[in-house]
Every structure is written in C-alpha cells, then in structure tokens.
Amino acid sequence: KSTYKDNNFLQKNYINTLLSLKNYDENAYKVFALGEWGASEKIIYKNWSLVDKLPQNPNEIFYGLDFGFNNPTALVQVAVYDGKFYAHEILYQSGLTNTALTEKLQTLLKGQESKTIYADAAEPNRIAEIAMAGLNIKPAQKNVLNGIMSVKSDNFFVTKSSTNLIKELQTYSWKSDVNGNILEEPVKFNDHLLDALRYAIYTYKNELSQSTVADINFI
C-alpha cells in the first residue's frame, strides 16, 4: 500500500486536509491518509461490485462529468447491459482549463462524440463551450438526495482499474449530528467521480422514465 508520505509532490494544504479527516471522518482518514480499506455504517453506496472490464456490446453508453480545477475534473463512462449499470473511470485530473478539458474530451471520446455527457448544471458557460466543439454535452439534473437514492436503487458494477472511483465509494458517507444520528446529507470530500456518476445515472433514468411516459401517452 502507499500513503501521502510516498508522494513528494502533494501540497501542504492537501496533506493537512488528509490529516484533519481523523477529527470528523475516521473511515475517510483510514482510506486516504493511511491507505487502508474502509468500512462504516455511514457509507452511502454498498450496492456495487467489481468487474474486470465493461461488458462488450452494451445497450447504452453515456458519460458523467464533474468540473474542477483545483479539485479534479472527473469523467465517468457508464455502460448499460442487461438492465445493469457499469461504471469506468475515464478522467481524474486537476488544473484543467476548459480549453484543455475540451481537447481531452475530444481525444478520450474520439468516435463517440454522439454519446451524451451529463455535466454539472452549475457550469452553463463551460457546457456551452464544450458543446460548440461538437460534443453532445448537456446539463445534468442535480438534486443530490434524489440522485443518491436513484443510484442506490440498483446494484451496479465498477471496473477494477477505476482506482479513484473505488476510493471514493469506500469513503462516501452520510453526515451525522453531535449525537451521532445519521443525516440525509453526504460529507463533501473526495466525491468528484461520484458526483459525475450520479449526474449520469440519475439524469439518464429520469429521461428514460419521461420517454416511457410520453410513449404511453402517445399510444
């Protein structure tokens, strides 16, 4: 295993953030600071399993995108096969301007430009700029609690190579009050890929549901 002590390029403020986790989230401290496996009753997503790779010939492919700069920009590919969702980490990188991100997306999604990217709706200007470059990007539906419940409602699979996504899944947890009661609000720490995953699955499900209702009404 490796820890922050093995990375000489980490900034001091990030190291301080890692160490401060011990004061309010012991599980996250174990995973991100000590490099250990985590477990907690407050963990939000327990409905996932590891797979070697995405299924061949999926029924659908789409993407979730969480913008960042100081924090990592996160891109997740989601494949639908036999009614199940499969997630694969594509991009997890800090310091990307929108121009650099657009160029990366054009490279990473070469041949799949028509596939939908569900992106953080709080960044309409960035979405518009990426759309002008020919990518099929649209604002995601952002209701956090409803989105989490939507992702929790089905078992899903994650590729073994999605290392940052796996770490986030191991630590993404509910907040608790001073009495230890669990609140319906997630701790905001290292959740960039999970935000992207939520944007993708939640918005896709809602659009699929609306399309089904429209078809029924038409009939």
What does this 3D model show about the protein?
The protein has 7 helices and 9 strands; from the N terminus they run H-H-E-E-E-E-H-E-H-E-H-E-H-E-E-H. Strand 5 (117-119), helix 4 (124-132) and strand 6 (137-139) form a beta-alpha-beta unit. The strands form 2 sheets. A 7-stranded mixed beta sheet has the order 1-7-4-3-2-5-6. The protein is globular, with a radius of gyration of 18 Å. It has helices at 12-20, 26-33, 98-108, 124-132, 144-152, 163-171, 192-218; strands spanning 48-51, 60-66, 73-81, 84-93, 117-119, 137-139, 156-159, 174-176, 182-186. 32% of the residues are buried. It is of the alpha/beta class. Helix 5 crosses helix 7 (192-218).
Please write out the topology.
Elements: H1 12-20, H2 26-33, E1 48-51, E2 60-66, E3 73-81, E4 84-93, H3 98-108, E5 117-119, H4 124-132, E6 137-139, H5 144-152, E7 156-159, H6 163-171, E8 174-176, E9 182-186, H7 192-218
Parallel strand pairs: 1-7, 2-5, 4-7, 5-6
Antiparallel strand pairs: 2-3, 3-4, 8-9
Helix pairs in contact: 5-7
| Extended strand count | 9
Determine the strand fraction and express it as a percent band: 15-25%
Give the overall shape. globular
Straight-line distance between termini: 58 Å
The H-and-E topology, N to C, reads as HHEEEEHEHEHEHEEH
Determine the fraction of residues in helical runs and give it as a percent range: 25-40%
- Report the average pLDDT across residues: 88
Tally of helical runs: 7
Oligomer state equals: single chain
Decide which structural class fits the backbone: alpha/beta
- Which ranges are low-confidence, i.e. pLDDT below 50, for 5 or more consecutive residues? 214-218
**Tell me about the biggest sheet?**
7 strands, mixed
What is the CA-based Rg, rounded?
A: 18 Å
Q: Please give the order of strands in the largest beta sheet.
A: 1-7-4-3-2-5-6
